[in-house]
Amino acid sequence: MRIDLHVHSDASDGTRSPAEVMRRARGNGVDVVALTDHDTTAGWDAAAAALPDGLTLVPGVELSCVHDGRSLHMLGYLFDPAEPVLAAELARIRDDRVIRARTMVERLRGLGVDVTWERVRELARGDAVGRPHIAQAMIEAGAVASHDEAFTADWIAEGGRAHAERYALDPERAVALVRAAGGACVLAHPRARRAGYVFPDELIERLAAAGLTGVEADHPNHVPDDRAHLRDLAAALGLVVTGSSDDHGAPTGDRIGAETTAPAAYEAVLDAARGVVPPTP
C-alpha cells in the first residue's frame, strides 16, 4: 500500500484541481492520499466526489502556525470541519492571508515590480491566497525567473523586502484545536532547511506532550541525516513517522507519491482521530 499524507490542490496554492489531484494520485500508484490545503477544507467535497476506484481520501488541512516569529506548519487530519472554534480560526487565518497578500503586492509595486492584486487573486481562485500565487505573478511580470528566486531576502522570503507578517496559530493551540475537533496532528517538514522550517527538538517534545500524533520525517526537502534524527526522536517520544510528497502540482513537478507513509503509521493516525471517516469510491 502506497500512502501520501500531504498534497495540495488549487483550493490553496496547488496548481491542480482537487479532482485532478485525485486522478494523478491514483495514476501514480497511490492507494491513500491526504488533501491538506493551507487553512481550508474547500477542496474536500470535490476530491471525494472524484475519487477513482482503489483510492482512499484522508481529508486534512495544513494549518499556519508561528513559533518564535517563524512560520510552522501543522497537518490536521480527519477532524470535523464544522467544529466552531477551529472553523473560526481557519476563517481568521484565511482573512488575514488576503490582508497580508495585498500588503506584499503593494510593497512589490513600491520596489518596481509590476504585479497587481487582481492577478494574484485570480491565480489564487479563492481566499487561500499565498506567497506562491504572488511568486507566480512576479514570474509573469518578469521580475524573477522562478518561485525559488521569489522566495529570497530580496523579495518575499521571511524578512524579505516585500514580506509581511500575518495571523497564525500557536502550534500547541493548533494541536489542541484539531484534537478537540476529533482529528489527529502531524508536524509538517520540521527540518526543511532550504525553506527555513527548522525547529528544535525541545519544541517537538512540547508538542508531543500536547497531543501531537506524529512527525513528517520523510519529505523531499529533508536530508538523510535529518530524517534519521527525526525517526530516533519520534521513537523516543512515542510519535509516528509519516512520509509525504508535499506536492503542489506543476511547481513541485507533480510528485504525488514521491515520499510515502508506512501502513502501520497510517493506521496509528486513524486510531488517533475520531472525526471524519476517510471516504472511498
UniProtKB/TrEMBL annotation:
Domain of life: Bacteria
Pfam families: PHP
Listed InterPro entries: PHP_dom (IPR004013), PHP_domain (IPR052018), Pol/His_phosphatase_N (IPR003141), Pol/histidinol_Pase-like (IPR016195)
Residue spans crossing the bilayer: none
Domain called Polymerase/histidinol phosphatase N-terminal: residue spans: 3-67
Entry protein name: Metal-dependent phosphoesterase TrpH
Organism: Actinomadura algeriensis
Lineage: Bacteria, Bacillati, Actinomycetota, Actinomycetes, Streptosporangiales
